Structure formats: structure tokens, C-alpha cells
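Sample 3 of the quickstart, ligand 5-amino-5-deoxy-1-O-phosphono-D-mannitol:
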Amino acid sequence: MCGIRGYIGDEDAPPLLYNGLKRMEYRGYDSAGIATISDAKMLVKKDTGKVTEINNKLDFLSMRGNIGIAHTRWATHGGVTRENAHPHASCGLEVAVIHNGIIENYRSLMENLMAEGHHFNSQTDSEIIAHLLEKHYKAYEDEKQAVLKTASDLKGSFAFLAIFTANPNMIIGARKDAPLVIGVGKQGNFLASDILAFIDYTDKVLFLDNREIAIVKGRDMQVYTFEGKPVEKEVTQVAWEAKDTSKEAFAHYTTKEIHEQPQTLKAALYQDPNKVQEFCSAIERAKHIHITACGTSYHVGLILRNLLARLAKIRSDATLSSEFSHDAELIERDCLVIAISQSGETADLLFAVSEAKKRGGEVLSILNAVGASLDRESKLSLYINCGPEIGVAATKSFTGQLILVYLLIFTLLNDTRRLADLRDIWKAVEEVLKMEDKVVEVAKKYKECNDFYFVGRSLHLPIALEGALKLKELAYNHAEGMAGGELKHGTLALIEEGTPVVVLNPEDETYQEMLSNASEMKARGAKIIGVSNRPHEIYDDFIQIPTVDELLYPLVEVVPLQMLAYHTAVLRQRDPDYPRNLAKSVTVK
Ligand code: M6R
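Result:
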């Protein structure tokens, strides 16, 4: 959601902060700003709009200072206005703060502070932090105590950074239930919501844990728990590289990421066999398995549940993380939770995981972002190794998570033939990518249709849900994914002349039944867009995919749906990388 970033070092802070803001655009935002200290004076520039537009107006690069903080805001409390944009300053401009999260008790804190003479300039919950820091810094004359006291006053979730004119060589940060990482550079240190904000400058990272604060003075860095105990931190070198964050020759990150899938599928299979075995053993041992995730990652969870049941005869349930807490009373003490996530920072997911852990559950995860909060909460994580995913829509991370699900299932079953097929599946994905012209033709034909339906059965149902989600998210066409068998129970009433229906119908046990569903819809005027390895006269439009092992079709058939959503978005002049109202990483509940 909001993106935070700070820099302190030998270099000019504004260009580094400005580049960081552009890097964090993928997190979604509606306003942005920068604060620096130069000649012992705080300078704050902020406004609503896109980072480049704000820069054109305010010229961030004309700011001075070797220290600063920068923020992209995604409004939660208070409208999208200049006043509500971050950084927020204390009354006398002594402290500037940026914040990601939600402060639940801000009203009572604000009332107390106003009674003490503080005045507020915004309607946000975040501004409270600047005033609390100012107050406690004056009282204690010690930054560590000021931050600890401020953190203990706050209820809710937060990652914040602050700079002080009284100590222009220091940035402080604190985190509770929102991400904060430190990048250790040659010329200076970075603090940010995620590694992408500084990966162009350093790949050496120090991960703050929950309920920790960091005090960075020049090159010196100290970390403490909220109880004030010093913590020794290890610097980790991350595998992502600056080049991974470039668009290369592609028009958008989303299409670049769709086209990277043959490579990322191979990368996901580079796993330590012992870890894979350990994951499988935990599944075999478990008395109860709960799979949890959000959005696209949840669709992977549905396939995991299906395959565990069908092939390994292991019962599990798949629950949206945002619904998990409502079922929390049913979580057994000895359960295994499998959490699936690209970012490892999704707030609902982290909450679900912590609920399960409180009840004695063990957490294993499948994720992309090494060192993310989910990683640190998990007993064991398997990484999908797909590199940074910048487009808000999950594409390569979906197939990365999915191929790991197959790797686990086939390892569990000791199915060496299918393991070999899995290693070659990238070739089929490469073939599908060559169908892009056909997909563009379909996108052109149906782009203005108000309602799309995606229909599949069994393993294809989660792909139908995924195809619909991609189209809604990127192109803003209304779309619904549904089970073929459910059509007669209501949705058929909505099918009329010209309604586009994408039918996921490769040759497997669902093939004939899906053809029957397709003809029911066609009889009512639907335009049938068939995605299959086998042509059929019933299809008005046909996107051919290669023939693969029948269990592996989801990995292949999802790719044309990703391309369909992308091209429909482009044709409708949407920005596929940054869809309206959405953020890449949903770090608030
Ligand atoms: O980082 P996560 O996998 O935990 O994110 C979960 C969802 O927010 C995410 O998959 C979202 O649905 C995507 N934008 C869909 O393309």
C-alpha cells in the first residue's frame, strides 16, 4: 500500500529518494512527497498525483541534503489531498515522518496532543506520529527513548521513518505488522518498505523483525526491540538484481513478466531437494491442513487442495486469508498451515498465519520475496525464484507458485514420470506465448463487452477465477469465473446474444461436460472462446494450446488469459502496470 523510503549517506539524497518513489509506484498510490534536512532546516515537498507529475510541479531534484525520507501514499484515513500526503511534520517542523499502516487509536492520541497545544494539518492517522516523536524527543532528549515511547503509544500497524532537525545525521525507523527493510550501501544506508526501492543501489539487506526499531546514524546502525533490548542483525545478500527491474524492450512490466514465464518456470524448479522433501513430510504427517492466501495466490491454493485430495487422498481446506479469522476457532492445535504469497507481506495473510500460530499451528509457505514477513513467520519456505514482479497483476508469480505445488505433489507421490514432464512444461508455455496475435484478435473483438464469463471444471475452475480476476483488474471489464456445473443454477440467465464466454476445455475428464456447457450457452447466444488443445466447431474463437499431461493444463491455459487481460487493457487505454485503486502489496487489513 503506502511505500516508504529513506536515505542517509554521502550522496545527495533527493535523486535517490525520487528514483525510489518511481520504483515504489507499483505499490499503488495517490500522492507522494519527500522531506530532507539541509543546513539544519527541514524541507518538505508533497502533492497528489503521479510521481513524475508532482516532480514536474515541485522539482524534487532541486532539494538539498544527504538525508531524507520519501513516501507514496495510498489513502486509508483522510482524502487524497496535499495536506494528507506524507511526509508529515511536527508543529515546529522539527520532525518529519512517513508511515505505512493504520493507527487505530489516533483519535484519542490526537485529542490528548491537541489539549497539550499541538495543532494538526491533516486528517490522517499518520500525522500523530510526528507530534508524538516531537513531544517525546523534547521530554527524553534521547532518540531511542523517544521512538520506543512513541511506538508504545501506538495501537495498530505501522512502519514509520522519521528525521529530526536536532540531529540531521540520523534516521529512525520502527515496524509493527508492516514491512521495513534496511539496505546497506557503499555510500550510505537505505530504509524502505521493500527491497525493490533500493535494489538499484545495493543488494545487501538487513530485515527488521516485528516490534523492532532501527536508529541509523551515518554509517552506524543499531536495532532494538520495542522493550529496548539491542538486537544483532545479519546482513543478507539478496539474489535480485537491478536489471530485473527494467522493462527491457517491452511496453509494460506486465507483458514482460508474462513473457518471462518460460524462464521463471525453470527457475522455480531450482529447489533444494531436502527442503522439498521436508515440506512433503510435513504434509504427510499433518492431521489437519489449512491452505490460506489472497487473490491470485488463493487460486493456486485451490489447485493445491484439489491435487492433494485427488492424487494424494489428503484432505485439506483452502480459505481466503481475509476469512480465516472468522473460522479461527476451528483451527486445530496440531494443524499445518500452508501459506501462499508473492510478496509475503499481505496483511490478511500475515494475520491468518499469526492466528494459526497462536493456536499452535505450524506454518509452511510458498513465496517469492525472500526475507519477507511471511518468510520469517514460517518454519519452512519454498521460494518461487521468479525475480521481482512489478506489474500489479500477479502473472509469473502465479505460475511460479503453481509449478511448486506440482513439484510438491509429484514428489509426495514419487511420480517420476510427471516430475520429468514438469521440467519440460516451460516449452509448452513458450508455444502458447506464440499465440499472442490470436489473443490480440480476440481482445479486439470483445474489448467493449460489459460482461465476460470464464468457465471451467475441476482443475480449470481456479483458472477460470484467475482469468476473470485478471480481466477485471487490468481492463476493468466485469468478469466472472465459474464452475461449468453451476451455470444452470443462475448464471445462465445472464447469457444473451453476444456475451463472451471463455471455456477452458483441454482434453481431460472434464472435456465432454464442458462441451455440453458450451453448447447450452451458445444456444442462448453466447460467443464461445475455446481454450483447448483440440479445435471444435462450437468455438466462435479458438485459442489453441499444446497437448500436455492432463494434470498440467492449468500451467499452460492460464497464459492466454493473462495475455487477453493485458491486451484488452491496452486496447481500452488502461495502464496495465498500475490499475486504478489497486496496490501490489496489500499491507493493510
Ligand atoms: O503478495 P500476495 O500473493 O500475498 O498478494 C495477494 C493478492 O493481493 C494478489 O494476488 C492480487 O490478487 C493480485 N494483484 C492479482 O493479480
